[in-house]
Amino acid sequence: MGPSGSGKSDLALRLIDRGAVLVADDQVILTKCGNGIAASVPDVTAGKLEVRSIGIVEFNHVENVTLQLKVNLSSQPERFPMDSGNETLLDRKIPTIYINPFEPSAPAKIELALKRLKKVIDPEMTKHS
Question: If we measure between CA atoms, which residue out of 6, 32, 35, 21 comes closest to residue 123?
Fold first, then answer.
């Protein structure tokens, strides 16, 4: 998450290049599902990613996923965060990290965070209501 021009789409493009699949760019619909949150794409922007200097590009995408990790973009994240912790979104606690999206290692850091979470994720978070 971050304001316009903060590097969200650029980071998404680099993650897609590493094998990730697009859910949504710019607008994401968040809804409660079980103990977690579902993220989905509005029909009008499905499969579309704004790539600066190129324009709107179409990619394979998924319509709906369970939110596993919230990534907040920051130009200077803490070197040793005391507690990466959780943030509350729609009355649900979501694991959260802070990343500088323009660091070359940003996509790898997100993948590492997701791999660490897979070891501790509550199965109830992934149930859709």
Answer: 35
